[in-house]
Specification:
Elements lengths: L2 E5 L4 H12 L3 E8 L4 H6 L4 H8 L3 H15 L3 E5 L1 H17 L6 H20 L4 E3 L5 E4 L30 E4 L17 H4 L2 E2 L7 H10 L21 H5 L8 E4 L5 E5 L14 E2 L1 H9 L1 E2 L2 E2 L2 E7 L4 E6 L4 E12 L13 E4 L7 E7 L3 E11 L6 E6 L3 E8 L1
Parallel strand pairs: 1-2, 1-4, 2-3, 4-7, 8-14
Antiparallel strand pairs: 5-6, 6-20, 8-9, 9-10, 11-12, 13-14, 15-18, 15-20, 16-17, 16-19, 17-18, 19-20
Helix pairs in contact: 1-4, 1-8, 5-6
């Protein structure tokens, strides 16, 4: 019997992942990752933990209680791992430093590589588990036809066929877009390697969200109708600007147009991202001129085109000036050994934000990674963001950071 440590967040997706694995005959342990707030952050504010959580709207205790209840309902062991200081030092510190430098990072990508498929995976292997599993909407395939979750329709018993790795050396694992394309989370997983993929299960790869909720209801799980979490990974439902303001203070600066004219003020470049619409203050003269210039009866809208963190300035312009079709990616990670040269992929697509459109692309090698040329210009290409590559069949090939 294979042992699987399932990351139980306190939500319905991870609960059903554990349910499916248990029904398939695996020896399942539920593991809740406690990542926020760390003791050092609470002590810094001079508050008790209860006061800090109430002040900052943190859901850590609620999620932990929900995770414990899920494991009791499933009849599986429950374990809590405290990675809060590591999460603060590896993910949150990076989050603030990138924004302060004028870039737009994605903390969920780093959280996956450093915490969920880093520290959690390491712990599981050290404690004699065969795999870890999560509630991510992603599909895993490989040359051995190892099926992470071969499921029959809702209402009947799920089937899972564990094949092991005995008959073929060095199988190649492929991370693919799941059945539920609206919930697809492969964008956040581009930093994973063959080593991690060989030890991971994604039981929800062949399900859509309403099927997951239906399975939870039929199993009597209390999280069946629980709303999905939003916001920053592990932190909770908090706006990015509000979270940034906890450490980065307001620093008024100039807003310039594309011709070098000062047209307004802002609160600090770290509170804004390239492609953002509004959020700063236009001076009265610019506002009056803007109101007098209409196109099809509507006032022209300004978007952020670029940021200068050194001089604390924003450059804004109209929609046609806020799009790009060429950018460079660095820190590239490619997952598939058979598809490590993106220049040779006949049908190549790229996604520059979670849930964003898959856009056709051509690439050429650069000194630090790849130049990416899009088949159409898009708004919101910002340095620090992740650019994730896919082939025409929906395989996630890997990604990089927009330079």
């Amino acid at each position: 019997m294979k042992r699987v440590a399932v990351g139980i967040s306190g939500g319905v997706d991870s609960a059903v992942s554990a349910l499916l694995l248990k029904k398939a005959g695996y020896d399942v342990t539920g593991v809740h990752l406690y990542c926020w707030p760390p003791k050092s952050e609470v002590e810094k504010d001079g508050l008790t933990r209860e006061e800090w959580i109430k002040k900052n709207g943190c859901r850590a205790d609620e999620d932990r209680a929900s995770a414990l209840k899920t494991c009791l309902e499933l009849g599986i062991p429950f374990k809590v791992l405290d990675f809060s200081e590591e999460y603060n030092n590896r993910v949150i510190k990076y989050f603030y430093e990138e924004y302060e430098a004028g870039r737009t990072p994605n903390p969920d990508v780093l959280c996956n590589s450093e915490i969920k498929f880093g520290l959690f995976l390491d712990w599981a292997m050290e404690n004699n588990f065969d795999y870890i599993a999560t509630g991510h909407y992603a599909k895993l395939e490989d040359g051995l036809d190892r099926t992470n979750a071969v499921l029959t329709p809702v209402g009947s018993a799920p089937r899972m066929i564990p094949r092991g790795f005995v008959s073929a050396p060095a199988p190649s694992f492929r991370l693919c877009i799941p059945k539920d394309k609206h919930k697809d989370q492969t964008y956040f997983l581009w930093k994973l390697t063959q080593n991690e993929l060989s030890k991971v299960m994604f039981p929800l790869g062949d399900l859509v969200k309403n099927e997951v909720r239906q399975m939870a209801k039929e199993a009597g799980l209390s999280v069946a109708d629980k709303k999905d979490s939003q916001g920053i990974c592990f932190v909770g439902n908090v706006e990015v600007r509000e979270f940034l303001a906890r450490r980065l203070k307001e620093k008024p600066g100039k807003v310039m147009d594309t011709e070098g004219n000062e047209v307004g003020t802002h609160d600090g470049v770290w509170f804004y991202t390239v492609g953002q619409r509004g959020g700063w203050t236009l001076d009265p003269k610019t506002q009056k001129l803007r109101n007098s210039k209409t196109q099809n009866g509507e006032t022209e809208v300004f978007y952020i085109i670029s940021k200068d963190a050194t001089n604390n300035t924003l450059v804004v312009g109209e929609a046609d000036k806020a799009v790009k079709d060429l950018f460079e990616v660095e820190e590239v990670n490619l997952m598939s050994p058979q598809k490590r040269d993106l220049e040779k992929i006949s049908e190549l697509f790229v996604r520059i934000r979670h849930g964003g459109e898959l856009i056709g692309a051509r690439v050429s090698k650069s000194e630090h990674g790849y130049w990416v040329e899009l088949t159409k210009a898009v708004r919101g290409v910002a340095s620090g963001q992740s650019a994730v590559f896919y082939d025409g069949k929906g395989e996630c090939l890997g990604g990089g950071v927009i330079a």
